[in-house]
Amino acid sequence: MRAAFAYMGNIYIPLRTFFKELGVELIVPPPPNNKTLKLGVQYAPETMCIPFKLTLGNIIIGFKMGADTILHTTGFWSCRFGYYGKLYAYIVKDLGYKFNHIDVSSSRLKEHYQLIKKLNKHSDHRAITSIIKAFSKAWYKSAIMEFMEKTSRETRPFEINKGETSKILTKYLTALDNTDSIKVMNKLKREFTNEIASIPKDLSRPILKIKIVGESFCVIEPFINFNLIQTLGEQGVLVDPCLTAHKWLAFHTIRNSKTEWKSIEKLADYYWKYNVGGEDKKSVGYTLLGAKQGFDGVIFLHPFGCMPSNAVQPVLHKISQEKNIPLLDVGLDEHTAETGFYNRIDAFISILSNRRKTYKK
Amino acid sequence: MSKIGIPRALYSYYHFPVWQKFFELLDCEIILSPPTTKNILSDGLKIATEEICLPVKTFLGHCAHLKNKCDYLLVPRIVCMFDDAQNLKYGCPKAMGLPDIVRACFNDSIHIIDFTIDERKIDKRNSYYKIGQIFTTDIKKIRRAYDNAITSKFSTSFAIRQWGNDAIPQPQKFCAVENRPFKSAIGLIGHPYLIYDAYISLSLIDLIERFNIKVITPSDIILQQTDQSINTSQKNSLLPNLSLEDNLENKSQLTQINCLSQHRRNKKNSISRLIDDIHWFYEQDIIMSTEYLLKTHQISGFIFAFSLSCGTSAVILEIIKKELLDCYRIPTLFLPFDEHTTSVGLTTRLESFIDLVQRAEFHTYTQIDNNFAQYSKEKILLH
Known about the structure:
The complex is a heterodimer of chains A (361) and B (383). By secondary structure, chain A is an alpha/beta fold. Chain A contains 15 helices and eight strands. In chain A, the strands form two sheets. A four-stranded parallel beta sheet of chain A has the order 2-1-3-4. A four-stranded parallel beta sheet of chain A has the order 6-5-7-8, with helices on both faces. In chain A, α2 packs across α3, α7 packs antiparallel against α8 (182-197) and α12 crosses α13 (280-293). Chain B is α/β, with parallel strands linked by helices. In chain B, the strands form two sheets. In chain B, strands 1, 2, 3, 4 and 5 form a five-stranded mixed beta sheet that branches. Chain B contains 18 helices and nine strands. Classes of the chains: A alpha/beta (361), B alpha/beta (383).
């Protein structure tokens, strides 16, 4: 079984290990580029949101690379995310591919188990060991990935030679992607920590702190947000995204850090009562948290036409006024150009640094 | 006596008769905002953020109009509701956050009744009781009001149309302008709060009727269907050789055709399969009526009217396209609406579409049926 899946940021690194252990080969297409976007825009419905278009492009490329299955999580709720799998199936079928469509959802655990059993020579013993192995290895890998990303986010603003941290990060992430053994992963983690510590740093530099909130795909996928986290870091800004690939995976599979997210949603209750999808309530909660923790500003990234984000926009603007925290609200779609996007970001950052000077006086 | 303001926008187009009766029985005065005007829409545009869909902007305009005229403003929040088959269906994200949006846009200067319907936790009856308790402590009275009110609805789709635009005088059997009988019929599919609101839809129904063409809308079908009790003998009236004129002249025949609920029970029909996949409450009508009109051969073309940034439409129209329109091959027009749509552009598109429809009417329905049979065979083979 060769499966195509919705590609998002570094999510493929743990997922590849996970599915390999279960006996599924995950087809990982090259990272999204303009060709992918063009493919997605061509076949997707016009007013659909950008995550769908981009992931559709990646799935079509996956089929060109020889996939025979679509793997997608569903959960029917108010957001359009629940219908992604269905629409992928319609569109790919129209393109003439033959495939199996597997909707991964918690209500179908029995079916999924039968499938895993089938892949593991119809043996319960093998299936269960493979599941345990898959979960533990993927979990370990994604935790190390999170550690590396977090460390590099925190060192980037202080580095003296620009771009050094990112270079080390990409080197170690590719090494992490290529290994499956926990021993090697531990070794990589140790080496990474040593190498990051040896980078020349200027810790006296004054830095801005910015929180990035918004829809998960726009925050996690570097192609659609023009590698915002890295670029901001190299400009001397400490970035704290509300979501990372690890957090997204951990929450949506084993409900990790449930209590933390619940407390954040509780914070948002006054302004936004129901969680409608698209990380809207979390955006509200993290904005409030950012104001509490003394962040300099908040950047709200969302796909253009995303229903929950559109609905939550007025509320975020109100919070920004009431709590006195600057907010930049950027809608992203296939027509967003890098220059225009960074113009806005640069203007926002210069405003923030001026604001900090006046506040200090 | 407290005054309750109800904006003439969004979900009022579905539930206004219920709300009116319920609050009147609780001795409240209802202040309904007027049909959308230029001022109301421009107020709404000023208040709302730019990316949100047109009906919500209109809703905010109506709220601004009612702001100083009433004690309470009724803002519905539709989270979850059971449909006819007892499946949980959700509202659209904007419907779920509407009170929060209104509160954020008006800086707490309005007293909002946050009317939440969430049937996962509380059933519909209790959510009405909860609202009733704001105005009276007499539980019996609230119960009586609820029992009387819950069954009321708009009598016909024309009543909704008149409600959305006061200027229309009477239901007409003939074309409004030329006093001639209608030549053919077109299905106009869309949310009632868009297609019946004469200002934001640029009186689309009027425009089409001027071409001597009858408009059939989702509410037409749903209101007629619920009036008509199911009669098994009438099932035979689903005959493809009935000419279109007959159908329109004899309105009774139009209503006799088998009922949606019967459609729904029949698992072989694709209508039930599609509906089970749709998890939005208000989108079911759209899919159901599209399928119904296609299967009963009443129309010679489809117009889908939707607001440009309406997220649900993007998915629903794609499903309709792939599942239904691809096999029936019927003339179709997709009309997105936003605040920049002008009537000139709209008329041009309508004119060319209606030319297309009149040509395509030569294409008989039997042919379409053959096409469908062939198509479904191919589809089965593909599986």
